[in-house]
Amino acid sequence: MTAPISPQSLRRIARLCSLRSKRWERCYTIVKLRSDPVYAAVAQELTGSSLPVLDIGCGIGLLAFYLREVGYTPEISGFDYDRHKIACAQSMVARSDYRGLSFTTGDARHGLPETTGHVVILDILQFFTPDEQSVLLARAASRVAPGGRLIIRTCLRDDSRRFRITVAGDWLAKLTFWMKAPPVCYPDRALFESVLGAAGLRVRLAPLWGATPFNNHLIVAERA
Ligand SMILES: C[S@@+](CC[C@H](N)C(=O)[O-])C[C@H]1O[C@@H](n2cnc3c(N)ncnc32)[C@H](O)[C@@H]1O
Question: Best mutation site among 81, 171, 180 for ligand 1, i.e. most ligand atoms within 8 A of its Cβ?
Fold first, then answer.
């Protein structure tokens, strides 16, 4: 696993949202980048690649900032339907020295930007119905270049205590207005094997719990 982000990098990113009006985003950034193992896991999957990255449901752009801090230089475009989060990501880029980062507003249920390279989907599938999840995965797979990867982090539906804690966390995010929508449906592992396998990608799946109580898994689908 890639080493966790350095304290200097963390401070640099957090400072980008240090305006008075962004106090909440600053706290969120520090806690999230310190505690969530997903950013290092994605960075490890991208190590050594020169392909651009499309981040679907990018939120305030933390993955893009993290990747720049660990030395990933290709273009990164983020895409999210929450215009407030995209505005925050854009203002953070404007306050930074990072180059080649772009963030646009759009609903992934209605289509994806026309890019090819790597595609990342972190923690958004639970907002989609099963049919919408299949369509999104197929569209995302079609954006994966030869040698590229589709990297997904999601909670898997099962009967574990971790699963119940994840559902409670997603409802809390909705009730505090951090998320626009409540969770709709959590995928199971068969979905990835069927949709991404049919798209010609080789799929692997592993728990990605770190020190969190959530039932998160990392799914990596590669195009040979
Ligand atoms: C739990 S957050 C994850 C943010 C980011 N991926 C991360 O891990 O730092 C889920 C994100 O998905 C976005 N989202 C949910 N449904 C979406 C949709 N239909 N189209 C685009 N973005 C969506 C939300 O606005 C939110 O920013």
Answer: 81
